[in-house]
Write a structure and sequence with these properties.
- The chain is an alpha/beta fold.
- It has three helices and ten strands; from the N terminus they run E-E-H-E-H-E-E-E-H-E-E-E-E.
- The strands form two sheets. It has a six-stranded mixed sheet, with helices on both faces.
Length: about 180
């Protein structure tokens, strides 16, 4: 694993190692397995950022589940635009179903806020949210997050699904912008 990497015009340094990510995933898996015992939720991965986290996290689960993907877009470069666009919606009927949303990172909370509004209107039985990362100092919306992998400062991060203008999603660890 490289200590620093370059993406477009910027330099990033290692922030959360692959080993730490694995530990976080196992801890989240233990908590979620307890809460979903006897249930069969629909897992909702919010694209694009959460695809790698979702792939790893669902493999720590030991209850029956189905997976769906939805896609929203808000980011340009290293800033949230605040304007949320739904690009891909749900295929299945979620009425009376238990939903578990998987997010990569909650920054302003705008994406999750919008997704929850869309989803609650379809009358699911329950919605819970798991996010690998949370930037508490950046929140602008009150959003319920049931499981948080790690709270981080307001640094811009890439890797493990997260991108800087579409680059860096494939990195196995999480890197932050070098100051
Ligand atoms: P929010 O709507 O401001 O909460 O931002 C949510 C989305 O913005 C996340 O799902 C990410 O795709 C993206 N995002 C937020 N912070 C970062 C970051 O530090 N690096 C890369 N993408 C980010
Ligand atoms: Mg993104």
């Amino acid at each position: 694993m490289k200590d620093t990497i370059n993406l477009h015009d910027k330099e990033f340094e290692v922030f959360i190692s692959k080993e730490e990510i694995d530990d976080i995933n196992n801890e989240l898996g233990n908590l979620i397995n307890k809460d979903y015992e006897g249930k069969s939720p629909i897992i909702l991965s919010i694209l694009n950022g959460s695809f790698i986290f979702a792939a790893d996290l669902v493999r720590t689960f030991n209850f029956p589940l189905t997976i769906e993907f939805v896609r929203y877009s808000s980011y340009e470069g290293t800033e949230s635009t605040g304007k949320i666009t739904k690009i891909l919606g749900l295929k299945s009927d979620i009425e009376d179903k238990d939903l578990l949303i998987i997010e990569d990172i909650i920054d302003t909370g705008a994406t999750l806020h919008r997704a929850l509004k869309d989803l609650w209107s379809k009358k699911p039985r329950s919605i819970k949210v798991v996010s690998l990362l949370l930037k508490p100092d950046s929140l602008k919306h009150i959003v319920p997050v049931d499981y948080i992998g790690k709270s981080i400062p307001n640094d811009f991060v890439v890797g493990y699904g997260l991108d800087y203008d579409e680059l860096g999603r494939d990195l196995p660890a999480i890197y932050k912008l070098k100051s």
